[in-house]
Specification:
This is DUF4352 domain-containing protein. It comes from Philodulcilactobacillus myokoensis. There is one protein chain. The chain contains three helices and 17 strands. 10% of the residues lie in helices and 42% in strands. A six-stranded antiparallel beta sheet has the order 4-5-6-7-13-11. The protein has a single domain, classed as Immunoglobulin-like. Strand 4 and strand 5 form a beta hairpin. The chain starts with a strand and ends with a strand. With 252 residues, the chain is mainly beta. The longest helix has 12 residues.
């Protein structure tokens, strides 16, 4: 039985469409190069492991590993030591040795109501990544539950808020899917690491969440459409109280 362990590595300040369902859409500025959010990178914060002794040992090794960034990178004016990437082109290194370069920012602030739950997509960040060592590759393979991955890869980070507008405690089931250009679908069992799955919201409580997906390597300029859908919501007795949300269309 697998268990997702959210090990937060503080790098600076911590930071889908189906059938006949109605859709909500927005068009965003794809030339944004600045962000008011305080952190734009977390893609190796969440390590997915099995509950075996071997996995626990590997997790412990990750916890104590700290990559030494070469001087040639540290002297670059676009290098941000604390990972607080605000401008396109800036880059940092995670704890394991992956260079994370911010390639695109989209501030969205698009909301939909789904029954008694309100979802607000706050921002989308796109990253170009390069793992500089074996530890970095091992970490990302655990994050996305992969056996193999190239040392260069692209990720998409989604930041969103979820608000429980009801008078009862609810359990979230996370993002159902993120579809990219009708070409690739991310889901909980397909290259998507979603913090919101399994979260509990008290009556009238709101929480900020984030998710990170591994996307096929291609020029981000070709990104035209994202479709996001959330899973249904359950009460404390496991009864479905709200079905999956409408699809949110984000046009670039």
């Amino acid at each position: 039985m697998k268990k997702t362990i959210f090990t937060i590595l503080l790098i600076g300040i911590l930071l889908t469409g189906c059938g006949q369902e109605k859709q909500s859409s927005t068009t965003i500025n794809n030339n944004s190069s600045n962000s008011n959010h305080q952190h734009s990178s977390w893609n190796h914060s969440n390590i997915k492991t099995n509950e075996s002794d071997q996995s626990k040992q590997k997790q412990s090794n990750f916890d104590h590993y700290h990559y030494q960034v070469p001087k040639s990178y540290r002297s670059n004016h676009e290098y941000i030591k604390n990972g607080n990437l605000k401008h396109v082109g800036e880059f940092s290194f995670d704890q394991f040795g992956t260079k994370e370069k911010l390639d695109r920012i989209s501030n969205i602030n698009q909301s939909i109501n789904s029954g008694k739950i309100k979802y607000t997509i706050k921002s989308i960040h796109l990253f170009k990544n390069k793992a500089h060592n074996k530890e970095a590759l091992d970490a990302v393979k655990q994050v996305f539950n992969l056996n193999q991955i190239s040392s260069t890869y692209d990720t998409i980070q989604l930041k969103f808020n979820v608000t429980n507008r009801s008078d009862q405690t609810v359990n979230l089931n996370g993002i159902k899917l993120i579809q990219i250009n009708h070409d690739q679908t991310l889901s909980s069992n397909q290259q998507l690491n979603d913090e919101s799955a399994g979260q509990t919201l008290q009556p009238h409580q709101s929480k900020s969440m984030f998710a990170m997906g591994l996307i096929n390597n291609y020029n981000f300029k070709h990104l035209k459409l994202l479709q996001i859908q959330f899973n249904g919501v359950y009460n404390q007795h496991g009864k479905l109280i709200d079905p999956p949300s409408r699809t949110i269309n984000i046009n670039y």
